[in-house]
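Bump. Still looking for Reverse transcriptase zinc-binding domain-containing protein structure tokens.
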Amino acid sequence: MHWIAWEKICIPLEEGGLEFRDLKNFNIALLAKQLWRILYYPSSLLARVLKARYFRHSNPLDIEKSNAPSYGWRSMLAAKDLLKAGIRKNIASGERAMDPNYSG
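Sorry for the wait, here they are.
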């Protein structure tokens, strides 16, 4: 059997590797996606349960430490920095805020 370093296996095919995924980075990306879904779908069951337990009066991106966090919540918090690095805010002209029918 011929052993090869994991770093070489993860190189793209065009560069001589086998194009395997780096599982650690892939896992962090999936955890960041779950955290993103909690932010953008706050009425989902998962978001409501986690909000009640871990971030009742704040934003999940502002949480530093929780009291007795579950393994899943700790894992999502590990991906928080990746999510923060990719989030962008839209700044509008303010016209909608002046609309009396606008409630956001």
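Residues 22-88 form one domain.

Edit: fixed formatting.
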